[in-house]
Write a structure and sequence with these properties.
Distance between the termini: 58 Å
Number of strands: 15
Strand content: 15-25%
Order of helices and strands: HEEEEEEEHEHHHHHHHHEEHEHEHEEEH
Radius of gyration: 25 Å
Largest sheet: 5 strands, mixed
Shape: globular
Strand order of the largest sheet: 13-12-11-14-15
Amino acid sequence: MKYLIHIIAILLLISCNTANNKGYLTYFGGEIINPKDSFVVLLKDDKIIDTLQLDNRNRFIANYKNLNEGLYTFKHGIEFQYIYIEPTDSILIRLNSWDFDESIVFSGNGSSKNEFLINLFLQNEKEERAMYQYFTLNEVEFSKKIDSLLLERQSIFNEFTSTEENISEGFQKLTESAINFPLYRLKEIYPYYHKKALNLDTFPDLNNDFYKFRNNINFNEEDLISFYPYQNYVVSYLYNLSYQLTERDSTKNNLTINILNAIDDNIQLAEFKNTLLKRVVVNDFLKSESSCTIHQPTLNLFLEKCTNEEYKTQVKNLVNDSKAVETNKPLISFDIQTSNDEITDINNVIKNKNTVIYFWTTEFMSTEYLVNRIKYLKNKFPTILFIGINMQTTFKEIKTEPHLKKLDIQQQYKLPKTSAAYSFLTSYYPRVIIVGKDGLVKNGFTYLDSKKLNSELVKLELN
């Protein structure tokens, strides 16, 4: 198979070079092993450029005339990855959807720069996890660790550019962002984690030189707003400002309000501002102390600052969904459908049992995470019934997809089109409802990776 892909790449190169004499043609194609969907989506700045259908051999190919150079995203199922495209490129990918990032192989003109980027992303993830052990260090020693990693990565990039011809300014800028921002982010979160690691009463008083890298940062970089290393850095910077404000001013003790205001003060690009506002307010919703909710002042500020009507609707739906299932009230009756297409009522299934009902979709979580999380919870809490209701995936996929088929199909359900459950699923966001054996709701809206879930289930078992 790999030889066939290479032959296709050579043919594309010939075609591409011929076409470019008349006008740039850029090729993008490849093969998906164990596909999750029947198509691959190509996006630019989170906007769909093209939807490429897989053929009967799970391959796809398309060409584009005068495609602009820049950072694109290709998405298949829930997974996505970045790809840097220049007008003369003819890039083929090959990947296994069961091991998405680690299995990607690029070939064709433009493949080497993308191979370099994917390896850099994977290295970033590995090094970031390792760096958490160093938050106990003082600011000088921690800065030395960061500087050392920066030099090491820059050296690797210099070595790469010495063997590659025609490295564009755009690719150089993107790569420097991929090198720098994950490490700059670690410096932004250092005060919080240093305080936590050493159990300090206040944030450390840092020398001005600690943040001197900020002098070269543009917080409104239009070319990078959809690039997660950049976006995550900006969010960490804003959180750092907001944490510091809560410590300096006792009247500014609402962290989320501080962050929303910091976004409004520092971010001018409307699209980027709206994305960050939504990201922060949804995070606030999920991190609520008890059942997920958004406090009214936070919601009001978000609705005031956000200019994206779709985002406003999504957040309002999330809030309304959370209120629709009330704590300490009986769970409302709604129909569910078994894998044998039988319709039953949820209350018949969970009657007299402590139950966790988890609504899930592969649009928001990987199948591997879902299966591992449910397996862990069922082993830890064997007396609790775990009922899965999927809002997207078919029963056929549950029975055949390598991760999903590990789920107990007898405890998996779907919703008939007329189910009353849709009244509290308007946001389509995955949620968990905890119900006691007395039939009363103990938590109307939490989620599978909530840090509070374990303690709630311990309490449930004791009832």
